Sequence to fold (275 residues):
Amino acid sequence: MEARTKPVVLITGASSGIGKTCAEHLHARGYRVYGTSRRAAAAPESGGFRLIAMDVTSEESVAQAIQLILSREGRLDVVFNNAGDGIAGSVEDTSIEEARQQLDTNFFGVLRVCRAALPVMRRQGAGLILNVSSLGGLIGLPFQGLYSASKFAVEGATEALRMEVRPFGVRVALIEPGDFRTGFTAQRRKVRAAQGSNAYTARFDKALATMERDENGGADPIAVARLLERLINTHSPRPRYKVGGFFQKLSAGPLRKILPQKLFEYLLMGSYGIA
Fold:
């Protein structure tokens, strides 16, 4: 594909981690890339792509960012819904407000961007939406229950969206990353009630230490960037694509399906040191 025909790509959450790596990779390959950040100015970033302001928790901010892209490019071909964050703590320790904030970014943020982009793509008769879930969107992770819940929600909505927009030429799929070396680990927040000592503290501390170790030893996010480029050029993508370590993908796929639930839970708890 010639550079002049490369698609216009919107990548949310592109100031660091997977989003930034994907934006830099596609820009280097000749795509017209717009990355977003809540605190960005509309100026080129060091990786060469345009970094623009967007807060996915604000419908107005989302609409303004997409309108900016349309005013410059006249079209929007690909949306990579990557923006998200994580909280850690037991379900009991998580306040309703903290749970609401988690879903507002990770689920409703995806929904806001999809709703703003879809009228454009339907008018074009073509487009691709890739929503970032997680292997934690297939398995309820202990002490990341609300993070998993937000990703489970993304999974369900994306499955429905695929069927709804197919007649308009819009392709939709899920990308489900495992552990990658990104800034996500440092940005994860403990819920307020988990910052002191309570009935869950000992097991929570063990689980959190395991999470951080696995993430810090995770894969290079360039693997997600290469998958993203491949899917942009895939005529009919599958519903979901797992990306990450072999054993993580195995656990979230075949093992979850074939093992009895109690045994699977025991093995999962053992991997976090809390069995």
User: Anything to note?
Assistant: The chain has one domain: 3-271.
